[in-house]
TrEMBL record:
Alphabetical list of InterPro entries matching this protein: Beta-grasp_dom_sf, Mopterin_synth/thiamin_S_b, Thi_S, ThiS/MoaD-like
SUPFAM superfamilies on file: MoaD/ThiS
Protein name: Sulfur carrier protein ThiS
Organism lineage: Bacteria, Bacillati, Bacillota, Bacilli, Bacillales
Pfam family, one: ThiS
PANTHER family: SULFUR CARRIER PROTEIN THIS
Species name: Bacillus salacetis
């Protein structure tokens, strides 16, 4: 499936069907992250419910510690 993630065309395996599975795929499911799909910001409780489709536009902002 082709998604536009943070303004980049990215191919992900067809087994990735939900936002939660996408975060697991990129190994950021345990980090504090804000996810927007097609210009709609999602509550974390909805990540497992929201289905992704070919061509969806996804923005992921996660926080990285450091100084």
């Amino acid at each position: 499936m082709k998604l536009i993630i943070n303004s980049e065309d990215i191919l992900v395996d067809d087994s990735v069907k939900t936002v939660k599975e996408l975060l697991v795929h990129f190994q950021i499911e345990q980090k504090a992250a804000i996810v927007e799909v097609n210009r709609v910001i999602l509550e974390k409780s909805k990540h497992a419910e929201v289905q992704l489709a070919n061509g969806d536009v996804v923005e992921i902002v996660h926080f990285v510690g450091g100084g």
